[in-house]
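Worked Example 4.2. Consider the chain below.
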Amino acid sequence: MSSSSYTPPAPGSKIIIVGAGALGLSTAFALSERKEEAYNIHVFDRDQIPVPDAASTDINKSVRMEYGNDTLYLNLMLEALPMWHEWNRERAEHGESPVFHNTGVLMLCRNGQLSKYEQQSMQRIREVGHGHAIEELTTPESILAKFPHFKDAVSNGYNIACYNKEGGWCHSSEAIKHVYNKCLRNGVHFTLGKDKGCFEHLHTDENGAAIGIVTKDGAVHQGDCVVMATGPWTAGLIGLQDKLRATGQVVIQFKPPTSSIFHTPGQPVWSADVSNTGYYGFPINPDGKIKIARHAAGYLNPRTDDKVSTPRTQTSNPTDTIPIKALRDFREFLANFFPETSSMDVSYARVCWYSDTADGHFLIAPHPKIENLVIASGDSGHLMKFLPNIGIKVAEIIEGKENEYTKVWGWREAPSNQSDGSRDSASVTVPILEDPSNDDTRMATLEELKA
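Applying the procedure from the previous section yields the following structure tokens:
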């Protein structure tokens, strides 16, 4: 494990989890399923669930196998997929709508050549026995025969693709509520609210070991193990800026008219040469919205005193949209890819915050210097798809068990000039939000969101 001095919690221990997003809730549920250990699990968050400014509180997130040359997350996804289907069955029994939508994932590339990321993804998926799920669409005609609403994208150079019929998207906010309810049924305790649920600092003993937390209302909550699952806030709360960095990623939505191509049935989740452009999007959801996002270097929001980047969200800044340059870049891309959007207002825009690591791998490990503290963060923008099973892996790490993930997600030195393979951002200078010296970073006005 990451720390030779780490002592796993004993059966019956009180485990405090700070953060009720995807990682926190999945971990709480997984621990609550360990009936023999009979853990006393308490989750704290500063807001109600789903937490409004969490990355997981969204209309959709992609559920995909494609991870380039990385089989670790491919295998994790192969574990998660049947669990997503099981959750749908659970919900159907109670008359609830599905949380996973098996629309498939279409990865478009340009100029008749699949990018390295897509090529490696297909190769690895075939190697693990799921080649039957992949269809290569090697001509413009083959793409349009299956997905005619991409005609403008195809005519503008996105003329080769691979399609995986086993992927799709999850309704992330509903999925969060689903696992929250599973936690409640298993007896997990929740303390929620801006004062009583808000983490202020660790409660430590004379040796510096974590023995609980202190919340904003001054209350001390004793615990045998503390798990910080605080997403992009983690670096600022625990002083991990050398391991984690909060980056803001841009997201927009449209609400197309019913006559639009976006209402065509059978649309997949899609990406547009994602390792080079960062753009991806979703089929129209049941309430008539489409979401388009960009997985890129993002933006920083450094604190004045120590320059640690922390999230700036619409909870604290309700008039925020996205930086004006990001909006212009979206419009320029979409003018060729989906020109119909040029006449549509952007109906919603926000900056969604990642907890980035330098290598794109999660950081889930005991803290090497603070006893009884486990860090569960570093989502790097690709964690939500693992909501059903990521908590199982975290629970194993909390219990001190070795698995194939412990070394990859463990405490490590940050590599230089390396990035997640799905985005080319390692050597990019990341701009600062609302930088007075850079007009590109100011927030777009509501008027500017209009067509």
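Residues 255 and 287 are 9 Å apart (CA to CA). The chain has two domains: 14-57+173-244+359-409, 103-166+245-357+430-441. Compare this with Example 4.1 before moving on.
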